[in-house]
Amino acid sequence: MHYALKNRYPIETDRQVKTACVYFKKNLHRFSPNDRVTAACNIEKRAADLGVALSEDWVTNYSRPLKEGSPISPDFRRSMEMRKQACLTHKVKVNVGGKQVEGTGVVEALVKQASDLSPLEVLSAVQEFDKLANLEHHYDTLIPDPYMAVFGGYTNPEYDAVKLAGDKTQYDLTRASRTPETLEKVAKSLGKKFADAFGKDPLGTVSALGAAERAALGEVI
What we know:
Elements: E1 3-5, E2 8-10, H1 14-27, H2 33-50, H3 57-63, H4 76-89, E3 93-96, E4 99-102, H5 103-113, H6 119-132, H7 146-151, E5 163-165, E6 168-169, H8 170-177, H9 180-190, H10 192-200, H11 202-207, H12 211-220
Antiparallel strand pairs: 1-2, 3-4, 5-6
Helix pairs in contact: 1-2, 2-3, 4-5, 5-6, 9-10
């Protein structure tokens, strides 16, 4: 049996995957940041296994931290600015090297250091700061949690999308590979053999195509 989180929220069928996805979207504030990531990754993986097309911002944002090569969000500075404001509001000071320093200064230092660190190192640093600054109970109100701050996109959750077939991105291709109606169009245009391969491994299949074939696929989906 497959579950979204801790042997709860079954995702055995396509209907259950969709139900769990909607439930978590409505109740995300009830779950810890770590549980959000776990649920998002489990739901995304199960959706892929079942061929369920998902287009949920929270899944895209919270499954990104565990994907190799995921970049820091373009909204990172905005999230850290929100932390500075929270530090000012609550007069936050943290212990650094045995000295009490202003939380705003630590936040500014983190932003400056971010370009020299890997995204996961930045995530770890933000998590540690939030713990020291006692800001964890302000998640989803004054500040976004560390995963959302480092990897989440507010206005564009698919900020890291790369166009692979015409104007279609890897997200578009993945969704298309899980949509029966689209697969039928692909089969009629490029053949059933290709459609079957595309349905099983959309990104790998497209990467093997030439530029003209990719453009043609982009027109179909």
